[in-house]
Amino acid sequence: MESMAPSGDMSRPHHIASVVPNRYPRWFTLSHIESQQCELASTMLTAAKGDVRRLETVLQSIQKNIHSSSHIFKLAQDAFKIATLMDSLPDITLLKVSLELGLQVFPLFIITTAEDKNLTLC
Hints:
Layout: H1 13-19, H2 26-48, H3 52-65, H4 69-83, H5 92-116
Protein name: Zinc finger SWIM domain-containing protein 6
Organism: Anas platyrhynchos (Mallard)
């Protein structure tokens, strides 16, 4: 087993990777990945414009995998912008996706605001 090799054995490449310190802190890496995930989701919304089934799949994927309220809000804005481009009629399905994402963020915003102001929600 490779994991059983002595720690001083530098002849195998997997040991070199473990010796090199990570140049970015873990929180930065996670934040970067979440930002990239958000950009990918925005690109997927653009690609799915006009295709109801693909938009539903993208929406479900966003709702399942993106947890940051700021990223969800950005995606709601992106969906709205994509749906209302000047060169064509508004894409109703994409507008619905934008609304759905916006409504998903709204309770998160209310809870965060209440916590910031030490309010109790009923």
